[in-house]
Amino acid sequence: MATDNTSNQKELRDQEWRRELKKSVSAKDRTNIVRVKMPEVDPQERIKSNVEVNSGITAEMAVVEAKRCLDCPDPECIKGCPVGVDIPGFIKCIEAGEFLKAAAAIKKNNVFPSVCGRVCPQEIQCEARCIYTTKLKKEPVAIGYLERFAADYENHSGHISVPEITQRNHVKVAVIGSGPAGLAAAGDLVKYGYDVTVFEALHEFGGVLKYGIPEFRLPNQIIDLEINNLKRMGVTFVKNIIAGRTLTFDDLRQDGFRAFFVGSGAGLPNFMNIPGENFNGVLSSNEYLTRVNLMGAAKKDHDTPVFFGKRVAVIGGGNTAMDSVRTAKRLGAEKAMIIYRRSFTEMPARKEEIRHAQEEGIEFLNLHNPLEYYADEKGHVNRIKLQRMELSDPDASGRRKPVAIPGSEFIIEADLVIVAIGVSPNPLIPQSMPDLHVSKYGTIEVDSEKMESNVSGMFAGGDIVRGGATVILAMGDGRRAAKGIHEYLSRQ
Amino acid sequence: MSRILLKEYLSPNVVQIEIEAPLIARKRKAGHFVIVKIGTEGERIPLTIAKADIDKGSITLIVQKVGVTSHKLASLNVGDEVTDVVGPLGNPTHIEKVGTVLCAGGGVGIAPLLPIVEALHDAGNKVISILAARNKDLLILENEIRSHSDEVIIMTDDGSYGTKGLVTVGMEEVFKNQKIDFCVTIGPAIMMKFTSLVSKKYNVPTMASLNAIMVDGTGMCGACRVSVGGKIKFVCVDGPEFNAFDVDFDELLMRLGGYKNEEEQHYREQLSK
Ligand SMILES: Cc1cc2nc3c(=O)[nH]c(=O)nc-3n(C[C@H](O)[C@H](O)[C@H](O)COP(=O)(O)OP(=O)(O)OC[C@H]3O[C@@H](n4cnc5c(N)ncnc54)[C@H](O)[C@@H]3O)c2cc1C
Ligand code: FES
User: Fold this and answer.
1) DSSP secondary-structure letter at A95?
2) Per-residue pLDDT tens for A243-261?
3) Which CATH number fits domain B2-89: 3.40.50.150, 2.40.30.10, 3.40.50.12780, 2.130.10.10?
4) Among B221, B257, B258, beta carbon nearest to A284
5) pTM confidence score
6) Is the ipTM of this complex over 0.85?
7) Which ligand lies nearest the alpha carbon of A287?
8) In a designed cystine with B60, which of A15, A176, A325, B51 is the match (CB 3.0 to 4.6 A)?
9) A284 touches chain B (CB under 8 A)
């Protein structure tokens, strides 16, 4: 179902309207245009609420930005996209003012552009391969902003294209988990004509998109809209079901399910196993973000409690760490800091998130590592012992390892510590299926093309296969697995 | 949504609720729990499945009114719906014929003890149960425990029923007079701390079922973590039962009090509404 956009590029570019459009502005004029700036809510204003930080570009801005794209003969950007979106194709639709067509062009390969336009790390994917970056040494075409623009335009237009499913084959397929991997798989499976049911363990759908990534970066309403579209296409959603527990795979087979896609995500948060880590006020980023995002803990009328730390330390340098520290700032932290053992260069979080955090007054204690936590008489954390680090010379693989500087320990005060150093795969499904092959890290082993596991009819993708990865990779897996399932069931 | 089929007060503060949950009823084993959430603003709390009826498609939960959610649950009536119920969660109790087993339950801990007593008895063990409560009115499930035990000892703090004294006193008596092969203890963390000290003194292997604070109950958040044998364990996926001698009960006690201020404030606000 996914279109291969690398082989048919010439054909697409040779269309009459594309050639006309290209001629209408000279390449020189195109390259002279300055990259659009994303309108953002003022940092002092935005830290007072959950308002989305990036407000989105206007139609006028989008058309101008689209003009920057040179419609290259051999577009590298597509190769940088994990799902191979026809990037020049959709951007040229925007330049031509055909915004709904632009959205449709993206959706051929990416089912949730409004999500990916917001959370994909474009700076290391498509935009890193843009000719502006590689040859012209200028800022790349703002592919992510344009993707988001087209998707939001469609969502607000009242003309959301929901593919009509004409042929239903009444073959039941189960999708386990409603994160991006599961949702993408469900979307394709229902288009192939299957009778698709998504089973979710939690009381809400969306996986990390709901419980992890905060409103100020990805409003819940966007995810709900995508889920509603899937419902309109005929996907059934069932919450509060733990596959392997409430319903075993044998139960599901008996209920007539002929194939399974497991997109159960990376569950268990890692801890560092240092002294004091179990004191109250030391929690995983998963716990903190789940309390705030899924359980509404910061809202007055909600029952779930959360600590409103005044001096908050977040351990780690990934997106999860940035999301946690920025959430703490919004919940009233006077001092909100990142403690990371490497430097800005190695930080895995998106560049935009780091910049936004800096604008919001987040402090960065880079090249620091926690050694121990201390607590008050009630067992609530109040201080952290830190150690300074330095980076070693690059090793054979070019990596610079953080090494402790002896004698550099010192103490800082903190009343809330959030540990964001990664997750391990959730063991619930492998536990309930002793035959399933899992790696020594606990990830489900699949063949990388069809995403099929060693258990007949069982496919998997997303974080449960890759460990912690990205939304777009999870979606790509879900779609490949849907194709794999279709081939598998067609053979039967 | 799970409809409430029956509701009954077992003591002034403890209510027994039978709810519709056919899938969970089919799968539950002794030791399993569910996560329950009431209303869209509700929190997720773990509750042990005390009984299940496969034919009726129901499970029974026993709740002590302590915080906002247990009060909300207790205020629901037959015919009302519990918004979210998910499970069965946790590992089932390892049931085996070992000989004579001592089961010590305190307060509302007698509820999770019941299915274990039942299963141990069915497996052919001689079961001696010690039930402890502050006074006669607070003692729950005596008859149910009796029907699956070979011997039952009742202990009350004030002597209003059974023998006066703490559960540990009853245990010492038993240990002194007969050979016990295995011990199970469930109750408030402070009680389990002391009961496991007694069984340790008599060298009887002991299992405790822990009642940690939880959010998701599926291993995703780590709120339920405890130290067992010096290692971090998640009660929801690694437990809820652990070798009592390895559990750091002081840490568990400290963590259980973690949100006390926040909870009390919210509770007062809810009451004043
Ligand atoms: C805070 C945070 C910020 C992030 N930021 C970004 C970002 O900016 N950009 C980016 O690309 N990536 C980001 N990521 C990573 C990205 O969110 C994940 O890679 C992606 O969500 C993985 O998708 P998934 O579908 O595999 O799993 P998940 O999104 O984890 O969804 C899995 C779902 O399965 C459910 N489930 C688990 N077990 C069962 C079961 N037995 N039965 C039924 N249901 C089950 C879970 O409850 C969950 O809802 C971030 C992650 C976090 C935590
Ligand atoms: S309750 Fe969240 S991990 Fe156990």
Assistant:
1) H
2) 999 999 999 999 999 999 9
3) 2.40.30.10
4) B221
5) 0.93
6) yes
7) 2
8) B51
9) yes
